[in-house]
Amino acid sequence: MNKMKRLALLLIILSASFICRSQDNIRLQEAFYDAEYFLMRGDYADALPYYHGIYAAMPDNASIAFRLGLCYLNIDGSKNLAIEYLEKASQNLTGKYREGSLRQTEAPYEALFFLGDAYRINYMFEKAKEAYTRYRQTILPSDVENLMFVDQQIAACNNAPALMAEPVRFTIEEVDDIINDANDNFFPVVSADGKAIVYMTSMKFYDAIMFSRFIRNEWTPPVNITPELQSDGDHYVSCLASGNTLMVLSKDDNINSDIWTSHFDGTRWEPARKLKKEINTKYWEAHGFITEDGSTLIFASDRPGGFGGLDLYISKLGPDGEWGTPENMGPEINTPFNEDRPFLINSGKILFFASQGHHNMGGYDIFRSQIQYNGLWSTPENIGYPLNTPDDNIFFCPADNGKAGYMSMTGRDGGSGKADIYLIRFK
Fold first, then answer.
1. What is the rounded distance in angstroms from the CA atom of residue 307 to the CA atom of residue 31?
2. Domain assignment present for 148
3. Helix H or strand E segment including 68
4. Which of 127, 138, 250, 339 has the most other CB atoms within 10 Å of its CB?
């Protein structure tokens, strides 16, 4: 073969190799865009296979490892798998992280924070404190809010072993199988008289609102009332009030959240309506709860003038039938962190709520407080391990004047679905 033929053959081989690499790069870029789309929407399980495909081709990419860790950290039953990827990501960090770029091969400093979360959720408290401390060293002294939050997570790692050493005593029973189907069932709200339940069920394309009544000692087959409410699957239940004829919901689009209500007209639930601007502002308002007598609305909001993050506010029903100016519940309840999911029972004297603050063992914990003789709220009490865990615990619907309550749990033996609803009775 003469030199010209050899050169031509070499050019053909190089061109073919270049074309293959270009096609591979295009496929990886397309997979990355798909993964980023699902991650942005919070569809973590859908994002996973795309990131895994990219990671197989780019195993040294700390940014993809970071994103894999984020996905696993947000999937119940798989959060332990986040550790491997976040450990890998934390070995190659940068303070100049570029979102949305496949060329970004380093991970952001936040990988250390989420590694701390992964360790904490998996009961590895000493390692969690080490990761949080490393992350703390990357925060500017002027970023007081972030510093306080990291310090709260470190404190939670110190609190957790003591709370676990004295577990709360309770009995647990699964709510009827007619309620707990093969889907995720969560956010159970039971009426004050225990005769009705409304809850969320994860359908294939949306989260449905289900309603059932307790008649002759059994729950009736649940009815999907999402169409009656004219919801697009983005309303979430908060409360049943006024003799089971008033439902309170929240609607959020990951940018804004507002409080809505629906009335039962004796035959069907009316289309949900948003409460007026005295309650709903341009800020985040969520999880409204109305007391048994219908006089008081309690809800969470991050409007200006609070103590930080989401605070709990109370509004009274005026003689004109409109809700009055909300008042912040004060520093006994609200912290510099998020407070959410309030339930105000026993004529407004007992409060259950979720908080990232107070004597916490990680993420959100459920707390209980009650009005004292001086009119102030008592120091919120952690309802205890294992009802609270190092992971987020955000929804507890009290019953029987706080002696019991309904919550959704995953992974319990005998449960018929991924997440099932249980009745908890404190001993």
1. 42
2. no
3. helix 62-73
4. 339
Angle, helix 82-89 to helix 110-121, in steps of 10 degrees: 150
Structure tokens at 325: 């100016």
Looking at the structure, tell me whether residues 183 and 105 fall in a common domain: no
Q: Is 242's pLDDT higher than 90?
A: no
- 112 and 180 within one domain: no
Please identify which residue in the block is written with the tokens 């676990």.
164
Phi and psi at residue 127, to the nearest 5°: -65, -35
pLDDT tens-place string over residues 325-363? 999 999 999 999 999 999 999 999 999 999 999 999 999
Band of residue 166 on the pLDDT scale cut at 50, 70, 90: very high
CATH number, domain containing residue 65: 1.25.40.10
3-state DSSP assignment of residue 100: coil
- Based on the structure, what is the number of domains in the chain? 2
**Cα gap 313→315, rounded to integer Å:** 7
- Strands 257-263 and 404-410 turn out to be unpaired
**Percent of the chain topping pLDDT 70:** 93
Rounded (5°) CA angle 368-372-374:
145
Residue 318, pLDDT above cutoff 80: yes
Inter-residue contact 224 to 208 (CB < 8 Å): yes
pLDDT tens-digit map of 13-35:
445 444 445 566 788 889 999 99
Q: Are residues 66 and 195 in the same domain?
A: no
Number of neighbouring beta carbons within 10 Å of residue 330: 13
Domain of residue 312 covers 170-426
